[in-house]
């Protein structure tokens, strides 16, 4: 007897996806964590940070407890504060703007390109000019989202931002595994944040995230701020404000297993996306992917 078709198709089937690796492999990895007992930032967390940095082609990866914290910690490392303007994509999940507002900064929404659905560089310039004309806020940073897993036009966005004294934080929550100018997500902007929420291209079995940088100074600040602003010399010497933003060892263990098949899963996502494009092209328009980019098809 087969299940009756209900007309519902899950956006993402976590239980089925688990079968690619095999539940027994996850259980063995969890047993290792239970045996060593280092549940917070244990050896699995440290190992996955190294592997993620290598995969992305950057110097440093600081894992954390969610994609939202990955964004917040990056802005904290840059010293974002009240009175600062942070330019954010308007077509995105609320976290992309919330990360600025929670630090007291002012999110300035930038319109989307009608073809890519990502931040429109021309409207970014317009928004910057408007804020400069008003003269009330300090230009601080840009949070540019890779919506649906497709990279935004970082070349133009970063040029505009840098010319105006700002850095660019790429929100690659849906786009880990994508490429831009031949670089993996994590390597193309000043700092890059991603999410390991279960339905993301590289998802763990709970909440998780990571922030990528090539700067040792930024990395040290990320590591400090994710544990209440601790000093590297003394964990109970809190030298700045911070969060409780660590990735636990169980999620690190999951990510280590999933990294083994990650490239294979990206190929499968692209194949499924191509089928949707082919079968539905006469009914719906589709997102334009930049010629110098590949999508991770995060949705």
Tags for this entry?
15% strand; seven-stranded mixed beta sheet; alpha/beta; Aspartate Aminotransferase, domain 2; 299 residues
Q: Tell me the strand percentage band.
A: 15-25%
**Biggest pleated sheet:** 7 strands, mixed
Within the CATH hierarchy, at the fold level, what is the topology?
Answer: Aspartate Aminotransferase, domain 2
- Helical amount: 25-40%
Number of strand segments: 10
| Count, helices | 10
Mean pLDDT, to the nearest integer, reads 95
Unreliable residue stretches: none
CATH class placement: Alpha Beta
**Assigned CATH superfamily:** Type I PLP-dependent aspartate aminotransferase-like (Major domain)
**What class, by secondary structure content?**
alpha/beta
CATH architecture: 3-Layer(aba) Sandwich
Account of the 3D structure:
The chain has 299 residues and is of the alpha/beta class. The protein has one domain (14-294): Type I PLP-dependent aspartate aminotransferase-like (Major domain) (Aspartate Aminotransferase, domain 2, 3-Layer(aba) Sandwich). It has helices at residues 14-18, 23-36, 43-56, 67-77, 95-101, 121-134, 154-163, 216-225, 249-259, 262-280; strands spanning 60-64, 84-89, 106-110, 138-145, 167-171, 179-180, 183-184, 191-195, 209-213, 293-294. Strand 2, helix 5 and strand 3 form a beta-alpha-beta unit. Helix 2 (23-36) runs antiparallel to helix 9. The radius of gyration is 20 Å and the shape is globular.
């Amino acid at each position: 007897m087969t299940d009756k078709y209900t007309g519902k198709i899950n956006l993402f089937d976590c239980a089925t996806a688990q079968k690619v690796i095999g539940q027994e492999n996850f259980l063995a990895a969890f047993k290792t964590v239970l045996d060593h007992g280092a549940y917070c930032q244990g050896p699995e967390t440290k190992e996955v940070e190294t592997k993620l940095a290598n995969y992305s082609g950057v110097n440093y990866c600081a894992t954390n407890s969610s994609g939202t914290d990955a964004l917040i910690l990056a802005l904290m490392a840059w010293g974002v504060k009240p009175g600062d303007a942070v330019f954010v994509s308007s077509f995105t999940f609320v976290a992309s703007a919330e990360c600025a507002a929670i630090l007291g900064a002012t999110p300035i929404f930038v319109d989307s390109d009608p073809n890519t659905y990502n931040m429109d560089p021309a409207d970014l310039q317009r928004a910057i000019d408007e804020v400069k004309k008003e003269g009330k806020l300090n230009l601080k940073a840009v949070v540019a989202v890779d919506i649906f897993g497709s990279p935004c036009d970082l070349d133009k966005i970063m040029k505009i931002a840098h010319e105006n004294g700002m850095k660019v934080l790429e929100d690659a929550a849906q786009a880990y595994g994508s490429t831009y100018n031949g670089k993996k997500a994590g390597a193309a902007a000043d700092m890059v944040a991603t999410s390991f929420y279960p339905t993301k291209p590289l998802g763990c079995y709970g909440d998780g995230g990571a922030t990528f940088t090539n700067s040792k100074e930024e990395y040290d600040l990320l590591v400090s701020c994710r544990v209440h602003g601790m000093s590297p010399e003394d964990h109970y010497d809190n030298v700045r404000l911070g969060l409780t933003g660590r990735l636990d060892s169980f999620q690190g263990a999951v990510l280590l297993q999933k990294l083994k098949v990650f490239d294979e899963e990206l190929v499968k996502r692209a194949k499924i996306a191509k089928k949707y494009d082919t079968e539905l092209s006469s009914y719906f328009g589709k997102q334009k992917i930049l010629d110098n980019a590949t999508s991770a098809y995060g949705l």
